[in-house]
Amino acid sequence: MSKEIPVACCHSAFTNEQRAEYKHIWTEIEKRRLGLTELANGFQYRFPGDSETLRLIQDWIGMERKCCPFLTFSVIASNEEEPILLQLTGSEEAKAFLRTEIQSNIDIITRVPPSS
Q1: Which ranges of the chain does DSSP label H, i.e. alpha helix?
Q2: Residue 17: how many other CB atoms lie within 10 Å
Q3: How do residues 34-44 score in pLDDT, each as one tens digit?
Q4: Pair 26, 55: CB distance under 8 Å
């Protein structure tokens, strides 16, 4: 039986350096996004099929899993001529989270706190 994971973004999952890296990766991914489709249990992003985009998506998933462990990430990739599909899915609550809060949470994660 799998443990129920609450739908909440853990903003403290990253160090300041990781926040900067996350912001860089997210910015690069967003520049490359070709489309967004709503699924029954989440959303599917479409990206170019090149190797660099695939690497960025993999890096982003590696980081995103730390702050949003309630999401399921699926990557569909074939040859470089075909688009890469990234599916973010989960419960109904997770889908609602994706719809209304993910951008604000990304903004919080990528904000570099002031130096002390």
Answers
A1: 16-32, 51-67, 92-100, 102-110
A2: 9
A3: 998 889 999 99
A4: no
